[in-house]
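Pilot study result, target chain (279 residues):
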Amino acid sequence: MDKKYIETNKIDFNTKIKLVFDVYDRMINAGMFDYSIINIDFTFFSNNKTKLNNLLDALKQEFSINDEVKYDKISENENLISLTINDIIMSRDLLVSLITYLFIFAQKHDCNIGDWGAFNSDVIYDKSLIQIESFLNEGYDLCVKGFYYKAFVKFYLVTLVDDNPNAYYNLGCIKKGWRIVEGAIKSYNKAIEYSKNNPHPAAYMNRGVAYFDLGKYQEAIDDYKKAIELAPNNPDLYLNIGNAYLALKDNDSAVKYYNKAIKLGSKDAIKIKELEGLE
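Predicted structure:
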C-alpha cells in the first residue's frame, strides 16, 4: 500500500490544515479516489503517559482503532503513542474535519497530535447506502453522545444525495464548535437556501452568532432580526442583538433589545445591563 506521510508535531493548527490539502492532493495524484475507505496512522504525544492512555481510551469509544498501539519515549519528558484509525471515508472535507477534530480532541486531553499518514484502499464507499432520515437520526444521536466526527460524517453523507437543510444546519453547528467559523457560515448559508419554503430560525440565529464571532456585528444583527420574524418569543435573540449593538457602541439600541429580552425572561440581559452600567 502507498503511504502518504508528513510531520506535523511542530507546527500550528492552520498550517496543519494547509498540509491536509497538500496531502490530499498528493493522494489523488497517486491514484487514490474520493470516498475510498482508508486507514490512517496517527501519533499523539504528551509529557504524561497517563494522559495518553486516557486519550486512547476516549478515541476507542468513537473510532475503530487497530489493536497494535505502540508506545515510545521520544525524550526525557515526552511520551508518544502510534495507532491506526480504520475505515475512514476519504474526501477533502472529511480529512480536514478529521484532523481538526483530533487536534481539538487531543488538546482536551492535554496531548498533541503528531505525524499522520494514510494508506490506500481499493474499497469505495457505496453512496447507495445513504438513507437520509436514518442518517440524520444517527447523526443526532451521535452528537448527544459527544461523537462529533462520526456525526459530522453522517450529516455530510446526507448532503451528497440531498439538499437537506437539517444536514447543513448540523454541519454548521459542528464546525462552529470546532472553531471553523467561516466554514460554519457556509453551511448555515446552505441550510437557509434549502429551507426557503420552511424558514429555519435557528440557522439565522447561529449564523448571526458566527458573524458576531468574526466581528461582523451588522451582519449578525440582520440575521438575528430575521430569526425574530420567525421566532418572536425567543429571549436569546433579543439578548444577542443587544450584544451586537453594544459592540457597535450603540448603547441606546442595546438597551432597547436588552429590555425586550428581560420581558421574555432573560436573566443574562439583566446582568449585562448592570455590568455595563446601562439604564
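One observation from the pilot: The domain at 126-216 is CATH 1.25.40.10 (Serine Threonine Protein Phosphatase 5, Tetratricopeptide repeat). A full batch analysis is planned for the follow-on phase.
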